[in-house]
Specification:
By secondary structure, the chain is mostly helical. Helix content is 71%, strand content 0%. Mean pLDDT is 81; it is low at 1-23.
Length: 178
């Protein structure tokens, strides 16, 4: 498990690099990696806490060993204290990352991807757009035809039901007549 960060000599509460690089600040990417590791530590600590809680017996009239109970409760308190330290560390990393990124303008991801456009790609794009438009129109027509087909099928089903009832009534009348 990672230990909580010690304030570096550069800024109060700021992260510093490895012990050999005491004067340098850690860049934002490294802070994000530290934050990710901290989140992983928080998750593992939380799982350990739940494991301890699951193994603890509730005092429901059953005799239990006081020493064992006190030991488990002490472990639980220690895990909770360490979890609190990890959350404080995560808050420091978060604040430092926000501080480092405060002056940056938000840039869309499309602008970060280098893209060279030439005449052949423009032509391909137009033909692709036309193909997509045609496919969309065909799909819309198919959906409309399917909708009309379902309506016709429903209407035919109603007619068949009416004919069935009519035949039933005619057969019943003929049977009564005889």
């Amino acid at each position: 498990m990672a230990t909580p960060p010690a304030p570096g000599p550069g800024l109060p509460g700021a992260f510093s690099g490895p012990p050999g690089q005491a004067g340098r600040e850690v860049n934002t990417a490294s802070l994000c990696r530290i934050g990710q590791e901290t989140v992983q530590d928080i998750v593992s600590r939380t799982m350990e806490i739940f494991q301890l809680l699951r193994n603890m017996q509730l005092p429901n009239g059953v005799s239990y060993h006081v020493a064992t109970h006190q030991d488990r409760q002490g472990k639980l308190q220690e895990h909770l204290r360490q979890l609190s330290v990890l959350f404080r560390k995560l808050r420091l990393v978060y604040d430092k990352c926000n501080e480092n990124c405060a002056g940056l303008d938000p840039v869309s991801m499309e602008q970060l991807i280098p893209y060279v456009e030439d005449e052949s790609t423009k032509h391909e794009d137009h033909s692709l757009v036309n193909q997509l438009r045609l496919a969309s129109e065909e799909r819309r027509e198919i959906v409309e035809v399917n909708k009309k087909l379902k309506q016709k099928n429903q209407h035919l089903k109603q007619i068949m039901d009416q004919l069935r009832n009519l035949i039933w009534d005619i057969n019943a009348m003929l049977a009564m007549r005889n």
